[in-house]
Every structure is written in C-alpha cells, then in structure tokens.
Design goal:
With 368 residues, the chain is of the alpha/beta class. Helices cover 35% and strands 20% of the residues. The strands form 3 sheets. A 7-stranded parallel β-sheet has the order 5-6-7-8-9-10-11. The protein has a 4-stranded antiparallel β-sheet with strand order 3-2-1-13. It has a two-stranded antiparallel ribbon with strand order 4-12. It is globular and about 60 Å long. Bound molecules: 2-succinylbenzoate and magnesium ion. Its cofactor is a divalent metal cation.
Length: 368
C-alpha cells in the first residue's frame, strides 16, 4: 500500500454532560483525526489525547506537532507500507503512544477497507456483540450521582464504574450499593489519585464487593501497587501504568495487578493492544477495554477489540448517546447492555459528511 497523503483534521464536539475525574473536568472534546489516503482506500484514525497532559504526558497539540514533523513523514516514505510495519517504522521516536496509535489505526483502516475485511475479523473477534459498562464521573452531590447511575442501569449497562478521589470514595460507593443493591457489578477508578500512605482509605472499600479498583496509585508506582494489592481484598486493575505488552508482563510478574484495562491509544495501537490481550489470556488474567471518550470512529475499533475472547469483563465501550447528542458516525446504540461489532470492511463506520463538516475546526494536508 502506498500512501498518497495524510490529512490532519481537528474537530470539536461538546460532551452531553461534563465528565469529572480526579485529574480534571472535560466539557468538550477537541479531537485530532487522521485520514490516510491511498489509491485503493482511505482510512481513519482517532487520536485519544486530551487537550492537556493530565491523564498522561501526551496532549493534542503536541500529538499533532509530532505527527506532522516526525511520524507522518516516517510512514509516507515507506513503499508497500502495511499496518504491521507502522510501529516498527516509528519505534525510533520515543514515547507518544497515542499519536502513534492514531496513525497505525488510520493505516490499518485503509488496509482493511482495501482488503474488504473488518477490524473485528482482522483482530480475532468472536461473537458479534460486546457487553458494555459505563464510567460515571465525579459529581457535585450523592443525589446527582444516584440519579446518573439509576439512569444508566435503566438503559441496560451491565456494570458501573465510579470515578473516585480522596474525599469522594467510600460515601459514593456506599450510597450506590445501598440504593441499587449488592448484585450490580461495580468498580472504581482513581486515576492515580492516591498514595500508598492512603491505603487505609482504600481498604475501607473492601466491604462493598467491588469487582476491581483501577489505577489507585501513580503510573510509575508498580511496586507500590504490588504492596497495595497485598493489603486489599479488592482486585487491583491497572490502566495508566500499562504502556506495552512488556510492561504488562512485568506488572503481572510482580503482582502489581490481577486485571488489566486495555486502551489501544495508551499502548501504541491496536496491534500492541492485541498482544497484551494474548499475554493476559495465556496467563488467565481478565482484561477489559477502556475508553477515552471516543467518537464513533474510535468506538468502532474498540468494540471490535473488545470482542476478542480474553475480554471477559464489560468495557468502557458505552453507547454514543452517553457522550454525544450527535456522534460523528451513525450512533452506536445499546441493546440488552451490548453494542454490535461492526461487520463492514475496516472500521465499518465512517464520519457522516455533514456532521464532520459541522465540527471541523482545522484541516491540514501532508504529502511527500
Ligand atoms: O481512566 O478510564 C479512564 C476517560 C478519559 C480519560 C481516562 C479515563 C476515562 C474514562 C471514560 O474512564 C471511559 C469512556 O467512557 O470512554
Ligand atoms: Mg482508568
């Protein structure tokens, strides 16, 4: 496959409601899209960086600069490029997994559209739908939280994830358990807001029968996570800490976690994400698909990934309307707590032209 050129496009989409985590609050998403053009087909990539480097070191303007100056030139000059060659071609540039993942996703989409094969088929999906959970942000009151959780349960979500931080942990979890009962699959995500010194507060969550606690400590604190895991009954799951299959193998070997959240952007792409899945599946470690408030493009690929057999827990693969009044693509809709895996070639969905035009704030064309 020879790349004719690449478009970098910025879009701005308002979230249906603000989303608050321990590291910040998002009202809108300013998203970088990549469109790879080849003689046979076009492919779309969605970069999952946020506007500011609060979740990880990457941020959207930085990713755009890196793609423009280094990553896109390095792939455009490769004759006969395929998605599997993208990561090796970019390996000389340090870090920046989200920018790299977006470019690999666009190349893979073009390749698969040209070949008439879906993402799910290529990645190894089994079954034609996936079980979905929902990530519920930090709210300004317990009442507001209970309303939100009640609404999501009514829509059919199969598990609830509560964002927590010091001061918003035991009380919201207790309130959700009291209102909705012990049988609702429930988990929490701290986005690295605690230190090992705060382990006592986290141990107070043990009585609520949570399925897991996600990323309680800083991304680099693998050994502290291993210590914490020994102090808690609740299984520890890592998100921010797991940046590659190698890192996942190490984290599992030292007992830093017993569950893994797989986000393709965080690990440099769908191919590395699949390697982490394979590693975990071979070791009997449950995984689930995380999310980064994606549009229908990223959602399509995540749903395909989440259909791999080792994804035994419901993902943060929520329906379009959990995020957007109008998605960029045909909306993903929840049926019996599930989203359908797209079956058409590539991502199986494309931006709706009018919607794309409406939300675009900037475009830029790069060619050899
Ligand atoms: O930690 O999983 C996270 C969103 C943005 C950044 C980090 C996280 C999240 C979510 C939302 O929890 C997941 C989603 O619904 O896309
Ligand atoms: Mg997380």
């Amino acid at each position: 496959m020879n790349i004719t050129g690449v478009e970098l496009r910025r879009i701005r989409m308002p979230l249906i409601a603000p989303f608050r985590t321990s590291f910040g609050v998002a009202h809108t998403r300013d998203i970088l899209l990549i469109r790879v053009v080849t003689p046979e087909a076009e492919g779309w990539g969605e970069c999952v960086t946020e506007e500011s480097p609060l979740y990880s070191e990457e941020y959207t303007d930085g990713a755009a600069d890196l793609l423009r100056r280094f990553l896109i030139p390095a792939v455009i000059e490769q004759p006969g490029l395929c998605a599997a060659r993208v990561a090796p071609a970019l390996a000389c540039f340090k870090g920046n997994p989200m920018a790299k993942a977006a470019l690999e996703m666009a190349v893979l989409d073009a390749e698969l559209r040209a070949a008439g094969m879906s993402f799910g088929r290529y990645l190894g999906a089994v079954g034609d739908d996936v079980r979905c959970g929902v990530s519920v942000g930090i709210m300004s009151s317990i009442e507001e939280l209970l309303d939100a959780v009640g609404g999501y349960l009514k829509e059919g979500y199969l598990r609830i994830k509560l964002k927590i931080q010091p001061g918003w942990d035991v009380e919201p979890v207790r309130a959700v358990r009291e209102r909705f009962g012990p049988d609702v699959p429930l988990q929490v995500d701290a986005n690295a807001a605690y230190t090992l010194a705060g382990a006592r507060a986290l141990a107070r969550l043990d009585e609520f029968g949570l399925d897991l606690i996600e990323q309680p400590l800083a991304a680099g604190d693998l050994h502290q996570h291993a210590q914490l895991a020994r102090l808690l009954k609740t299984p520890v799951c890592l998100d921010e800490s797991i940046t590659s299959a190698e890192e996942a193998a190490y984290a599992l070997a030292i007992g830093a976690c017993s569950v893994v959240n797989i986000k393709p952007g965080r690990v440099g792409g769908y191919l590395e994400a699949r390697r982490i899945h394979d590693l975990c599946q071979a070791n009997g470690v449950p995984v689930w698909c995380g999310g980064m408030l994606e549009t229908g493009l990223g959602r399509a690929a995540n749903v395909a990934l989440a259909a791999l057999p080792g994804f035994v827990l419901p993902g943060d693969t929520s329906a379009s309307r959990r995020y957007w009044a109008d998605d960029l693509t045909e909306p993903f809709e929840l049926r019996d707590g599930r989203l359908a895996v797209p079956q058409e070639p590539g991502l199986g969905v494309s931006p709706l032209p009018e919607r794309l035009a409406e939300v675009t704030t900037h475009t830029e064309w790069l060619s050899e």
